[in-house]
Specification:
Blueprint: H1 2-15, H2 17-56, E1 59-63, H3 75-81, E2 87-92, E3 94-102, E4 105-115, H4 117-122, E5 127-130, H5 135-140, E6 144-148, H6 149-155, E7 165-168, E8 171-179, H7 188-193, E9 198-202, H8 203-209, E10 217-222, H9 228-242, E11 251-254, H10 255-298, H11 300-308, H12 313-350, H13 358-384, H14 388-392
Parallel strand pairs: 4-9, 6-8
Antiparallel strand pairs: 1-10, 1-11, 2-10, 3-4, 3-7, 5-8, 6-9, 7-8
Helix pairs in contact: 1-12, 2-10, 2-12, 2-13, 10-12, 10-13, 12-13
C-alpha cells in the first residue's frame, strides 16, 4: 500500500511542476537558512573557541583604570604584581593610532601596538623573518618595529622589508621582524583585536607617544599547575593596596570563566538563529497545506471514485499525507544542498575551516519532514472524510 501511495503521489506532484516548485520554495528557503546560518555560526564559534582555548587557560586579564588620584600601573607596580606565586609573565595592552610612511607610501590610521618580549616568547611561530622585540629593546626604548606580511607588501612591494625603515610620528623605526598573521596566537588581546594593519614596537615607546608611563591593561600568565583562583585572590589583595581599596578601580577576568560564559552565549545565539530560520519553514508549511487543500478540491471526483470502489478513508488519508511529506522532503534535500553550498562559500570568504554540521542537517531535514506531516494532516483528513456521493455529483 505504501509503495502504491508513493507512486501515485509522485505522479500527482510531477503533473504540475511549476506549482510544485512554488510550493516547496518556502521549505527550500527555510532549510537553506537553518543549514547555512547554523553551519556558518558553528564554524565561526569553533574557530574563535580554538583560538581562545589556546590562550585562555592560565591567563588573567587585568584592567587597572584606577582612580582620579591614581591611574594605571607603573612598571614597578607591575613587577611587584607578577612576583606573586604562580605568575610566570605578563604582556601589556597599550596602543596608539598613527600614519606611517615608507618610501613614497603612506598608510593612515595604523594601529601601533606596544609589545614586550614575553609576547614574542609566547608567539615564536608568528615570526617568519628576522626577530621579535626583546628585553634590551624594551629597556633601551630602541626604535625598532615588527610588521606583518600584508603591511610589508603595501610598504615594500617586491623588497625584503628587514632592515628597512618606516616613519612614525616623525621618528624612524627599523623593521627587525616579519609576522605571519595566520599563525597561531597565544595572546587573548591579539585574538580579540587581530593583527590586521598594525605595527608592533616596544611598549615603552607607545607609552611615551601617549604621554604616560602607566599601563592600564595587561595579560598575566600563570604556570600550568597554578592555583588560578588563589593567584587571583593574591592579585586582588595587592591591587586593593595599590588603589587604596577604592571600588571599581580595577577588574580581573579569569579566562576559563570567560570561556564558559562565551559558550553559554554561543548556545543562546545558535538557538535564536534556529528559531528565526524556522519561521521560514512554517511559512513553507502553510504553502504546502494550501496546495494540498487545492489539490483535494481539484481531485474531488478521483476521491469519490476511489471511495465508491471501496478505498478506505485511512488509505485516502495516507495518500494525501504521503504527498505532503514528499513535497517537504524534496524541499528539505534541496535546502540542505543550497545551505551547505552557501556555508562553504562563506567559510572561504571569512577564512575559517569548513566542517559539515550534522546537527544542522538533521535539524533541517527533520524539521522539513515534520512540517509535511503537520501541515499535510488537515488536507489529508479532509480528503478522507469526503462523502463519495457528493464527490461523484461533480462528474
Amino acid at each position: 500500500m505504501l509503495r502504491e501511495s508513493i507512486t501515485i503521489s509522485w505522479r500527482n506532484i510531477t503533473q504540475n511542476k511549476f506549482r510544485t516548485f512554488l510550493t516547496v520554495l518556502g521549505i527550500i528557503i527555510g532549510v537553506t537558512a537553518i543549514i547555512s546560518l547554523v553551519t556558518i555560526l558553528q564554524g565561526v564559534i569553533d574557530e574563535v573557541n580554538r583560538q581562545f582555548d589556546s590562550v585562555g587557560a592560565n591567563t588573567i586579564i587585568v584592567s587597572a583604570t584606577g582612580t582620579p588620584l591614581k591611574q594605571g600601573l607603573s612598571d614597578h607596580e607591575i613587577s611587584e604584581l607578577v612576583e606573586i606565586d604562580g605568575i610566570v609573565g605578563w604582556t601589556p595592552s597599550v596602543s596608539n593610532t598613527a600614519s606611517i610612511h615608507a618610501h613614497e607610501t603612506t598608510l593612515e590610521k595604523v594601529n601601533i601596538k606596544g609589545i614586550n618580549e614575553v609576547y614574542f616568547a609566547r608567539n615564536q611561530e608568528m615570526v617568519v623573518a628576522g626577530r621579535g622585540i626583546n628585553y634590551l629593546d624594551i629597556e633601551s626604548k630602541n626604535t625598532v618595529c615588527v610588521i606583518n606580511t600584508d603591511m610589508a607588501q603595501k610598504l615594500f612591494l617586491g623588497e625584503n622589508p628587514i632592515g628597512k625603515s618606516i616613519v612614525i610620528y616623525g621618528v624612524s623605526y627599523k623593521v627587525i621582524g616579519l609576522l605571519d598573521e595566520t599563525a597561531g596566537l597565544n595572546s587573548v588581546m591579539t585574538v580579540m583585536s587581530g593583527v590586521g594593519d598594525s605595527v608592533m614596537i616596544p611598549y615603552r615607546n607607545v607609552l611615551s607617544m601617549n604621554g604616560t608611563d602607566r599601563v592600564y591593561a595587561l595579560e598575566v600568565y600563570t604556570t600550568e599547575d597554578a592555583d588560578v583562583l588563589g593567584t587571583v585572590d593574591q592579585m586582588e589583595t595587592y591591587l586593593n593596596q595599590v588603589f587604596n581599596y577604592k571600588d571599581d578601580s580595577y577588574s580581573l577576568i579569569e579566562m576559563e570563566n570567560l570561556l564558559d560564559m562565551m559558550k553559554d552565549l554561543q548556545g543562546m545565539m545558535r538557538a535564536m538563529l534556529v528559531g528565526i530560520a524556522s519561521i521560514s519553514l512554517l511559512v513553507g508549511g502553510i504553502g504546502i497545506m494550501n496546495m494540498m487543500l487545492v489539490s483535494v478540491t481539484e481531485r474531488t471526483t478521483e476521491i469519490g471514485l476511489r471511495k465508491a470502489l471501496g478505498a478506505e478513508p485511512r488509505r485516502i488519508q495516507i495518500q494525501f499525507l504521503t504527498e505532503a511529506i514528499i513535497l517537504s522532503l524534496m524541499g528539505g534535500i534541496m535546502g540542505v544542498i543550497v545551505g551547505l553550498t552557501l556555508a562553504y562559500i562563506a567559510a572561504i570568504v571569512i577564512g575559517y575551516p569548513f566542517e559539515l554540521n550534522i546537527f544542522a542537517i538533521v535539524l533541517g531535514t527533520g524539521f522539513s519532514a515534520a512540517v509535511g506531516i503537520i501541515f499535510g494532516f488537515a488536507p489529508a483528513k479532509k480528503a478522507s472524510e469526503l462523502n463519495p456521493i457528493d464527490a461523484l455529483r461533480s462528474i
